[in-house]
Design goal:
The protein has helices at residues 2-10, 14-43, 51-76, 81-103, 109-133, 143-172, 176-194, 213-231, 237-267, 272-304, 306-325, 330-358, 364-389, 397-419. It is mainly α.
Length: 420
């Protein structure tokens, strides 16, 4: 297989192996920590879960990526990246341990959320540092290959970490704090692995001239605004429509995820443990949908065009989501999880393709920073909207119909644009 062959080539680079190990441990710990946080908020027997608390947890997990992400590079160009990986993971290990202590203590919820927010905020620097370090551990000829495989391996590690968290929570220890401590240990291992690399190996070069910090931050904000103006040019309308469509579809996915969490916790299970098992099954089925999208989308988008494929995905969701969601039953919900995983990832792949092909190369990185902000803000906004609409048991006909209408509007809008 080409992927296996490419990975074998990259693994010949000793420093790439070490950097990859740091990424796998770090993102695996992210998966453990995020699942532990979600299960504590939603499935702890001693907590009366609400949609509002789920929305708060999603904001904690995602907003740092949106607010900190575009500006992380300014500091990473001033700090030694190897030290960022060491101290960032050490700090996350300490903060995760503090989160575990707060879980078993009688403390206000806001203090717990502050601790979790700090962990995810530091995560943005670590992930950016890992990406910025790749050119220092592979040669130019293999850099594209490394940029393709390394983040994908990290995503798989995060998924495996989430699965490990489910196993530990259900089989080994009925304690969310114990799962968080497992994540803290993995963060610590990632920091120790970072120490196997020389302090100066990952850069940045000390002889490069850096602008003052305030000037750099202002320059970053101007660059993002320039990217928005670039998108506003007439020849990039397809990219704008695709981004708006994907943002709305991400909103729908986020709202339905909150509903599924509430259904698993209350309507479709009798105990928190049963609800947690059902949620793990639903997320696994949705993951199969994501994988299927990666297989199907290149063929479908090639036949229809990426824009029409987005319209087809949204139209399918508009038809199938109410049919599968309104019964509020386990079987249809699992089928819906697969369908939503397929259409959401399929639309995202098509959107990525449109954006990459429509914008100039010099703006591509900044456009994807804007894309990242839209993606995460839409998800958090969906959680907030669902918190206002969902009843305590999660059964909301209004939410299901509203989401179907949004999907339908996206399908019609993209289809009309593509016809023009």
């Amino acid at each position: 297989m080409p992927v296996v062959r490419d990975l074998r080539v990259l693994l010949r680079f000793r420093d790439f192996r070490r950097l990859l190990a740091v990424r796998l441990l770090s993102q695996g710990a992210d998966g453990v920590y995020q699942v532990a946080l979600a299960t504590y908020v939603v499935f702890s027997p001693e907590k009366q879960t609400s949609a509002a608390s789920i929305a708060s947890a999603m904001a904690v997990l995602l907003l740092p990526y949106s607010l900190v992400g575009p500006f992380a590079g300014v500091l990473l160009d001033r700090w030694r990246r190897r030290q960022v990986l060491v101290y960032g993971n050490l700090l996350r290990a300490l903060l995760a341990a503090a989160t575990a202590v707060l879980m078993v203590s009688q403390v206000p919820d806001w203090l717990f959320y502050v601790s979790a927010l700090c962990v995810t905020a530091v995560n943005r620097f670590v992930l950016s540092g890992l990406s910025a370090s790749l050119p220092r551990v592979v040669d130019t000829e293999r850099l594209v290959m490394a940029n393709s495989l390394s983040p994908t391996a990290g995503t798989l590690a995060a998924t495996a970490g989430g699965g490990l968290a489910f196993v530990v929570r259900l089989v080994v220890s009925d304690s969310d704090a114990a799962v968080v401590l497992l994540g803290a240990v993995m963060y610590l291992c990632s920091a120790l692995t970072s120490l196997t690399m020389a302090p100066e190996l990952l850069g940045p070069d000390r002889d490069s001239t850096q602008p003052r910090l305030g000037t750099a931050f202002v320059g970053t904000a101007r660059d993002l605004w320039a990217a928005v103006r670039h998108l506003a040019e007439p020849q990039r309308r397809e990219a704008v429509w695709a981004l708006l469509s994907m943002t709305l579809m991400r909103f729908c996915y986020g709202a339905l995820l909150v509903m599924v969490l509430m259904l698993c916790r209350y309507a479709l299970s009798t105990t928190p443990e049963e609800g947690l098992r059902l949620l793990g099954l639903a997320l696994g089925v949705s993951g199969i949908g994501f994988f299927t999208a990666a297989v199907v989308t290149p063929w479908a988008a090639g036949r229809l065009g990426p824009g029409r494929w987005i319209a087809v995905c949204a139209g399918a969701a508009a038809l199938l989501e109410p049919a599968l969601g309104l019964p509020f039953a386990t079987g249809p919900m699992l089928v819906a999880a697969f369908v939503l995983g397929l259409i959401t990832q399929g639309a995202k792949i098509a959107t990525d393709t449109i954006v990459q092909s429509c914008v100039d190369d010099g703006f591509r990185g900044r456009i994807f920073s804007v894309y990242d902000v839209l993606f995460n803000v839409a998800f958090v906004g969906a959680a907030g909207a669902a918190a206002l609409m969902l009843p305590p048991d999660g059964r909301s006909t209004v939410l299901v119909v509203t989401v179907a209408v949004i999907y339908g509007a996206v399908a019609v809008a993209m289809a009309r644009f593509e016809r023009r």
